[in-house]
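Journal club side-thread
Mid-discussion, someone asked how the predicted structure for our own chain would compare to the paper's figures. Pasting it here so we can look after the session.
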Amino acid sequence: MKLDGLVKTAANKENFTELPHYVEFCLEFLDFIGTPGAIQAEIVSRNETYYRFIQFKNAEFSISRPLNSNLLYASKEAKAALKKFPKILDAVKTSDTPANREIVNRSVYTIQQSIGAALDALPAGKSNTARKINGDLFERFIRLLLLRVGIECTSGVVKVPVKVDGEDEFMMRYQHDLIINSGELVKIIGSVKTSSKDRLDKIFVDKFLLAKLTGKDVPHIAIFLNDVQRKGKNPKEYGVGATFLPGHFKGYTVKLNPLDGVYYFDIRPNMLTEKILKDHIRTFDHFLFKELWGFLKREAVIAKVESKKS
């Protein structure tokens, strides 16, 4: 498939309704960028050299988001890994090995970044549309992944009754990207975003308010793809900059309430070394292979869930 076809496919969310659709697109994209002469250039980040940018041969010579070469599979690697990926998901409770954890993390990262990078080739005037599509497809991807491992989940609105003098007085509505539930038992609430930029506050406050309203500590989690963006005014200067706000995260964690899990695919170095960050932020495999199953055993909230069309 040529670039125009890849961009057209990525821009239509109806092309990604099942997990195999994501895998197939990723393989097509990796084949394309791995074909000699198909792209204009690969640009190496000036400050963190394992990040690369793809410059496309379209009318605008568009440049992609930063891609972590330590995580992004090349075409040949991807064909082997993505063949194993669904099989690991099908046996997730018995397939917890370091090798399988790496395949899950790198597969999800590679698949989603293939979509994001293809959307970066849209005309500059459609950049906001591209971000919205990419974010929606990432949310859907995570839900499809959880459905594959046997978890009932949706996106939509949780309606929580507020009691006054023991009587239901009114309802509060909360929109969430990820609701893991069993009927009206809400077991886990999650935010699924490609980046934490401008989104941290709501996640912490939602957990605080739900606990106040219900008297129950329902697990609240956040799943992020990465927290890096391109910086620099011309390709020769391009580097990466962090979009994560460690001060905000620490402040909310210490002074309001900690989230039950914050998970990344492309985790930043300071999240592995700084106090508080390293205790509360992990890579996604920790959630899928271990912590998810513990959360499901905790007390749930009874609330009406209105599913949103995916």
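Post-session note: The chain has nine helices and 13 strands.
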